[in-house]
Amino acid sequence: MAPSDQRHEQALKLFLDARPELRETLDHLNPLLAQAKGETQAQYREERLHEAFEEEAERQRLFAWELTLQLTAASPEEYQAQRLEVHREVAEMAGMDWIEYCDLYGITP
After folding, report:
1. Domain boundaries, the chain
2. Sorted alphabetically, which InterPro entries does this protein's record hold (predicted)?
């Protein structure tokens, strides 16, 4: 049950709403930088927002999808349950033993 695109968009909105200084920066990006990358201003802005989101997740020692769940879960308990569910899915897809996976990623099952 990886976070949906809709849920991720909601998390990005919440993330940005909580950071007026980031919104201000994103609203005043140099349009020449977007042009130099061959992107529209909206695409360039979106890319910078995603970078800031990833950086925040990394700062908190989370995967970006974990930050998405953290920002959109109704409660800390719901976040933990969803987080473990996704980690379990990842372990299964990787063909790893759950306990071994938990040890590798410092997860308390």
Report:
1. 1-72, 73-109
2. DUF6388 (IPR045662)
